[in-house]
Amino acid sequence: MERFDHNLTNVYNFKIKAWSSIQYYRDEVLPKLLEEKIIRISPFANRLSFDAPPAVQRLRCLANYEALRFSSTILSLGETLVARMKNLSANTGGKYVSVHLRFEEVCII
């Protein structure tokens, strides 16, 4: 990232269609990744998760696990929220409701 002045907007951005094939990733995306060492893929869809062989799926999951990390600020906030939920749920027999809201561009009108 030093080469890009630690600014993600300076990193090459691949615009990929949602239903691109594995061959497209291999033939078009991989060479650019090998050349640049880092690329952005947007919008990123989980297209590969639908028909990838198990070995590719394992590699994809491992790469996501290793690459995706929360910043220390977000991690700290998450720990605080979990601690509060645990403490406050003691008053309700350990029960609480958790809601995960996810908005995508196509859903917001």
From TrEMBL:
Pfam families on file: O-FucT
GO molecular function: glycosyltransferase activity
Native organism taxonomy: Eukaryota, Viridiplantae, Streptophyta, Embryophyta, Tracheophyta
One annotated GO biological process: fucose metabolic process
PANTHER family linked: O-FUCOSYLTRANSFERASE FAMILY PROTEIN, PROTEIN ESMERALDA 1
Keyword Zinc on entry: no
Family (UniProt): Belongs to the glycosyltransferase GT106 family.
Protein's UniProt name: O-fucosyltransferase family protein
